[in-house]
Amino acid sequence: MSHFTPTRYLLETVATGRRFEDTGWMLADPQCKEPSLIRAIYEKKQITFGPEERGIYKFADWMPVKRMLKGSAPTVTYRSEKLASRLGLPNLYIAFSGWWPEKGAGMTTCSFKETEAYSVCARLPEGERRVLVVASAGNTARAFAKVCSENNIPLLLSVPEENIGALWFEKPLNDCVKLICSPRGTDYFDAIALGDAACTSPLFFPEGGAKNIARRDGMATTVLSAAQVMGRIPDAYFQAIGSGTGTIAAWEANLRLIEDGRFGSHKMKLFPSQNVPFLPMHDAWKAGSRALLPMDDEKARVQALEIDAKVLSNRRPPYSIKGGMYDAMSDAGGDVECATNADIKAMKQLFLETEGIDIHEAAAVALQGMIHAFEAGKLPREAFAMLNITGGGQARFQQEHECWYLKPSLIGNASDPGIVEKIEKLFN
Questions:
Q1: What is the pTM (predicted TM-score) of this model?
Q2: Which residues, 6 or more positions from 67, have their beta carbon under 8 angstroms from its beta carbon?
Q3: CB 71 within 8 A of CB 55
Q4: pLDDT averaged over the chain?
Q5: Which sequence spans correspond to the domains of the chain?
Q6: For residue 189, pLDDT beyond 60
Q7: Secondary structure string (H, E, C) spanning 335-402
Q8: At the topology level of CATH, where does 76-110+214-398 sit?
């Protein structure tokens, strides 16, 4: 790996515009009185795309990283022919994250969550002794587990037991990675609570989710990949959302590309999609509400278990927070689409027939959302569209490789007596 100098940046609070130094693992501005995301303001205003051998770190000018980790692969963007022709969209570009060697796509977890994990873990100072805690509905856990295992970074994963089928790997993991689970019948929200309980111990610290600039700016590399290939900012961006963090990241990348000056001065319209019946952001956006609409916890849990795209089941997304989904959508324009479980099956088949590779359920939700937006006349047919295929090639990868599954070291609820001490013992 060629020599690497840590990226230089300041932090900016979206709510107030205050700029300050990143003195460590900062997830918020300590001086800000209201909930607000913070953003990285990079010293380099014009990005230099690095060499391909750097993997995702070819975009390191706009990633808040201290080092480059081994094993990364970037998103691959290409101009669609067969799917584009079938849909009558002459300027459709697909940003593909996953396993598709012929296209140069080499993410062995088959998910764009690798873009987050390689960015977040490279933001960690070398020699950090505490254990990073990541709560996940599945794909994020797989990506962080791979990156931490291969780079010897201590990691505690918290995942609902319902979702542990997502924790498959091409080889057994390093012992520095441990899994805890909330019991069957619980969802992602319960796994978050379990991870939060662990973080009350000084042994652990939270990854931070959407609040972590490295997570968003890692995801933003999908848009940088598209801009590099297209030579311009797309007119419209399509992605499925669970938390919406990827769409916020896309908007932030767009703002940086405008400031760069070489890719256009327009904002791409945002078209995130959710899986019916779990539609908290869709419903709030359609109601013109900055706040998520009131929702019964039990009803939400039932809906989250009904959807086929399990990774889209976040009940507490960064929607209302300053700099979050509502602000992104309001600033850029666009709409929130939705797809049923039946749509997912049809879209997976459509992509396989036309492009020749299998895709994740969430990516199928994005494809249905895009088709609906064009059919409803929300965009002209010749618009330059970026379809973010956030995961693909998994069926193929699993056919070609023998997979190993991570088993939980502990199953419990955040409210169980002595749960924190039990979790601590896993790392002692």
A1: 0.96
A2: 4, 6, 122, 126
A3: yes
A4: 96
A5: 76-110+214-398
A6: yes
A7: CCEEECHHHHHHHHHHHHHHHCCCECHHHHHHHHHHHHHHHCCCCCCCCCEEEEEEEECHHHHHHHCC
A8: Rossmann fold (3.40.50)
